[in-house]
Automatic annotation (TrEMBL):
Recorded GO MF terms: 2-amino-4-hydroxy-6-hydroxymethyldihydropteridine diphosphokinase activity
Domain 7,8-dihydro-6-hydroxymethylpterin-pyrophosphokinase per the UniProt entry, residue ranges: 5-137
Upper classification of the organism: Bacteria, Bacillati, Actinomycetota, Actinomycetes, Micrococcales
The enzyme's E.C. designation: 2.7.6.3
Name of the protein described by the UniProt record: 2-amino-4-hydroxy-6-hydroxymethyldihydropteridine diphosphokinase
Entry keyword annotation includes ATP-binding: yes
């Protein structure tokens, strides 16, 4: 079994219900054991152009899982859950009903056309780092440092719900 960190976010629809249902569905996935669910944080939307206070805000957090699935197989599960919950991919960093990102997979470094591990921007994002720190205070982002140090340096706005 490998420990994986999955970031979740939603800013459209019934955000709380969608996140709860997706977490339950992930926990019911063969080869995946849900270990921890972080507190939920509210954050403004971030678009390619920067923070968009006019867009609906996000609920964000992380899930820790233990999995027998390989990284790309886990990514397939996550993308299937997104699609089942109405995720539409029309605009990069656009509004969404559900976003599930594989952030870390046992500290592995990996890159191909579909997946980069660790997630290439997670080390800069308080909306990933803060909930990750809440559930795993000793976590490390491979090649970047401890989550605690990275969180201290991240300046994006996060507010616990």
């Amino acid at each position: 079994m490998t420990r994986a960190v999955i970031a979740f976010g939603a800013n459209l629809g019934d955000r709380e219900a969608t996140i709860a249902q997706a977490a339950a569905e992930l926990a019911d996935t063969p080869g995946v054991e849900l270990v921890a669910v972080s507190p939920v944080y509210e954050t403004p939307a971030i678009k390619l152009s920067g923070v968009d206070h006019d867009a609906p805000g996000y609920l964000n957090g992380v899930l820790l899982v233990e999995t027998e699935l390989a990284p790309l197989a886990l990514l397939d599960v996550l993308q299937g859950l997104e699609q089942a919950h109405g995720r539409v991919r029309e605009e990069r960093w656009g509004d969404r009903t559900l976003d599930l990102d594989l952030i870390d997979y046992g500290g592995a470094r990996f890159a191909d056309a579909r997946l980069e591990l660790p997630h290439p921007r997670a080390w800069q994002r308080a909306f990933v780092l803060q909930p990750w720190l809440d559930v795993d205070p000793d976590a490390v982002v491979a090649g970047r440092g401890t989550v605690a140090e990275l969180r201290a340096a991240a300046s994006d706005e996060v507010r616990r719900r």
